[in-house]
Amino acid sequence: MSTTPPNKQPQADSTPPSAELDRLRELLMGVDRKQIKNLSDSWNDPGQHAHKVAEIISEAIILRSGKDQSIPKALGETITDSIQHTVREKPTLIADIFSPIIGQALHKSIVQAMTEMLHTLNDLLEQSLSFRFITQRFKAWRAGQPYAQYILRQNLIYQVEQVFLIHKETSLLVGHVASESAVTQGPDGLSGMLSTIQGIVRDSFQLAEGDQLKTMKMGDLTLLIQSGPHAVLALAVRGRYPKDLTTLMADAMKSIHILYGQALQTFDGNITHLTPVQSILAGCLKRKDRRENQKRKMPWLAILLILIVGAIGGWFSYQQHLTQKRAQALWQTNLDRISTEPGYAILDWHKSPTGYQVSGLRDPLARPPRMVLAGLTQPPERIHWQWREYLSLDEAIQLKRITGLLSPPDTVRMQLDENNLILTGHAPLTWVERAVEKKELLPGVRHINIDYLMKTRGPPTFLLRPPPHRPLKPSRDPQVSKGIETP
């Protein structure tokens, strides 16, 4: 049985009070405390904010755009500065963006001009020999108009040249069709212009917000405007249009809103979903002529004129084709001749505005190009040669080069068989010894055969028997890889 000394007291628990409190707090608020800490860390991390905003930014823009115009106002200046910066830094990019638009405008202008010419050609030919033609010419002169334009205006009652569909809220052009004879220049600009004019008229005359401009007239061109809940329909009409044209506009506007009302209401600048609306707009392209009920005659004069012009043009084209074909044949003859000439290697040639440019390799011992082409008809274009010197391995050129190095007497005949130089005839012994010593200097020659060569110390009195016949390989064009180019 243990006893406690009288001077000793029992020891208390050594755990500090703060640790006990932390342990108690962990037991009571453990899970919530971890969540609060994670939330605090996420709030203080900028990267987490960026990811969260990226997940909802598109939906937030759509919701905010449906309430007011604060987003366009906030981004307008920034977008303008960005466009100006891109124009200054990358003008080529901007040119590439606008080039398809410019090309389409030019294409439409050319098509319109050709169409008008074909429509009026036959009438002009029929009337050119009549008294009515002279009378109409005089009237057109008095009116100060070209004759063709005067005739078109006289025969036309009215024509819807262009139809525009403009989104009412954004003033963007979402649909446009035009007749074949209409001249279209920047249809996108009409939507902004129309919105601006309506705003000016409304502000100047203090009209109500719902009041809309319905008609604009400029000369004989009238712009009819029909406004709907989400879009504005505009027709460019030339001439005196009938009243039922406005009924046609109202029906078209009603059909557009029935079929594409939801797409117009949620329009965000992408016109892909509104492409089928073009068929409804095309139904508004109406035209009426005074002669449309008359039976038109066969345009024999126009057909005859077109056939004559076509025949003349075809004849000139055929003659030009023959001339070019002859020139090409002449040039090919010259090229073949120079290509097969020993000592030449053609590397490249092309045709230039001043003639033909030919570059290649030429051995100094080869004949000049003019001598090679002597007797051939020269092509009409001049030939500009650009040669680099090299040592040809062609047999004829090699024999010339060996002859220049060895200077053989007239009684010696030389013949190449592969890499062997065969000497026949008779020659002084001293010359033969010098020729054998110069073997290493002869390009392409590994062995000199003097078995059939008679060595003499004085004037020869007889000839040795001729060497056995060995057929030589025909001369071939030198290859660049086998040539030895000299500096």
Characterise this structure.
The longest helix has 41 residues, at 300-340. With 487 residues, the protein is an alpha+beta fold. It is built from 13 helices and 14 strands.
**DSSP strand tally:** 14
Round the mean pLDDT to the nearest integer and report it: 76
Uncertain segments = 1-12, 460-466, 471-487
The first-to-last residue Cα distance is 121 Å
- Helical amount among residues, as a percent range? 40-55%
Q: Mind describing the biggest β-sheet? A: 6 strands, antiparallel
Rg measurement, Å? 48 Å
Query: Helix/strand-derived class?
Result: alpha+beta
Strand content: 15-25%
**From N to C, what is the helix and strand string?**
HHHHHHEEHEEEHHEHEEHEHEEHEEE
**Bulk shape:** flat
Helical stretch count?
13
Write the layout of secondary structure elements.
Elements: H1 17-43, H2 46-67, H3 70-89, H4 91-127, H5 131-143, H6 147-155, E1 156-167, E2 173-178, H7 188-204, E3 215-218, E4 221-227, E5 231-239, H8 244-265, H9 277-282, E6 287-289, H10 300-340, E7 344-352, E8 355-362, H11 369-372, E9 382-391, H12 395-406, E10 412-417, E11 420-428, H13 429-437, E12 447-449, E13 453-456, E14 484-485
Parallel strand pairs: 8-9, 11-12, 11-13
Antiparallel strand pairs: 1-2, 1-5, 1-6, 3-4, 4-5, 7-8, 9-14, 10-11
Helix pairs in contact: 3-4, 4-10
